């Protein structure tokens, strides 16, 4: 079984989701290869080697500076055809999803998406995905190779497993139509404060209660043995005349924090098992608080 993992990068760092997927792939196939595509990306190969890449293909060319999917489809399709990779894995993102869809069409290959786990059974890759509103988990496979897999964001945590990381340049030969699209501008999200990716408990607030002070019920839940100790912090909102945002932060005593905007009502999501890998969680509980007035 031969596996290729697409590593998405922002600036001079490979995305956490891509490194987590690479770690998982390397645990299933020690000879897993990775591909990095962009302009000025040669220095990222060492990061890939730290997380299990036995070989790192680097496509470094000025024509790949813009994060557009079609040129990346050209590069990956050529690698698959040249080296005969049986599995091509992508960590879900806007860019990776577009690349996976384009590659599926180009190679006439099957694509399974929204996967939360990967395994090898009988020498072949098997994926796991939720269905029916996340009420069941199903194992999915492919009827032919190459097998394309799009894995749900946050499914795997990066785990260092140093490998050979032999670097090989990947040829950049783009189709005529791949240059038809041009990126005029790119806006990067400016994030600050806590991230919901690290949260054990997620608290969302909307207009239902009218003010952060109405979170009193959550203060009661904070004292619950499974509440973990919540501290609610109102966030300023520049678009409101009073500067008040209807969101709140849930700060876990163990240092894990999270926030998320919502439009109606407040909710507390409590996962008894603390499974943050995107897998089936039948014990997930949802409690909604509404304005009683």
**What's the main sheet like?**
9 strands, mixed
**In sequence order, what are the helices and strands, one letter per element?**
EEEHEHEHEHEEEEEEHEEEEE
**Helix content range:** 10-25%
CATH class bucket of the largest domain: Alpha Beta
Named at the architecture level, the CATH assignment of the largest domain is: 3-Layer(aba) Sandwich
How many separate domains? 2
* Alpha-beta classification: alpha/beta
Q: Specify the number of helices.
A: 5
User: pLDDT under 50 segments (min length 5)?
Assistant: 227-293
CATH topology of the largest domain: Rossmann fold
Widest β-sheet, arrangement of strands: 9-8-7-10-6-1-4-5-11
Task: Specify Rg, calculated over alpha carbons.
Answer: 22 Å
Q: Give the rounded overall mean pLDDT.
A: 78
Note the overall shape.
Answer: globular
Strand content: 25-35%
Task: Let me know the number of strands.
Answer: 17
CATH homology superfamily of the largest domain: HUPs
End-to-end distance? 62 Å
Describe this entry's structure for a reader.
- This protein is 19% helix and 31% strand.
- The protein has 293 residues and is of the alpha/beta class.
- The strands form three sheets. Strands 9-8-7-10-6-1-4-5-11 form a nine-stranded mixed beta sheet, with helices on both faces. The protein has a six-stranded mixed beta sheet with strand order 13-14-15-12-16-17, with helices on one face. The protein has a two-stranded antiparallel sheet with strand order 2-3.
- Residues 227-293 have low confidence and may be disordered.
């Amino acid at each position: 079984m031969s596996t290729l993992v697409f590593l998405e990068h922002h600036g001079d760092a490979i995305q956490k989701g891509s490194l987590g997927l690479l770690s998982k792939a390397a645990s299933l196939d020690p000879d897993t290869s990775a591909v990095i595509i962009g302009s000025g990306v040669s220095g990222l190969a060492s990061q890939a080697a730290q997380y299990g890449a036995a070989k790192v293909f680097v496509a470094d060319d000025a024509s790949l500076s813009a994060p557009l999917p079609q040129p990346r489809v050209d590069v990956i399709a050529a690698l698959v055809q040249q080296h005969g990779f049986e599995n091509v894995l992508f960590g879900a993102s806007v860019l990776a999803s577009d690349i996976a869809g384009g590659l599926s069409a180009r190679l006439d290959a099957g694509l399974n998406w929204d996967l939360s786990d990967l395994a090898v059974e009988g020498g072949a890759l098997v994926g796991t995905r939720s269905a029916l509103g996340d009420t069941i988990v199903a194992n999915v496979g492919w009827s032919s190779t190459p097998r394309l897999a799009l894995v749900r964001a946050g499914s795997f945590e990066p785990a260092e497993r140093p490998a050979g990381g032999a670097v090989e340049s990947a040829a950049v030969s783009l189709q005529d139509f791949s240059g038809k699209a041009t990126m005029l501008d790119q806006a990067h999200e400016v994030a600050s404060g806590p991230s919901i990716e690290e949260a054990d408990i997620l608290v969302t607030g909307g207009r239902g209660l009218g003010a952060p002070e109405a979170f009193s019920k959550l203060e009661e839940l904070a004292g619950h043995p499974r509440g973990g100790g919540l501290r609610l912090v109102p966030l300023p909102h520049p678009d409101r005349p009073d500067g008040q945002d209807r969101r709140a932060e849930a700060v876990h005593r163990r240092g894990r924090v999270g926030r998320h905007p919502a439009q109606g009502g407040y909710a507390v999501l409590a996962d008894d098992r603390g499974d943050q890998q995107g897998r089936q969680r039948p014990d997930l509980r949802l409690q909604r608080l509404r304005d009683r007035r």
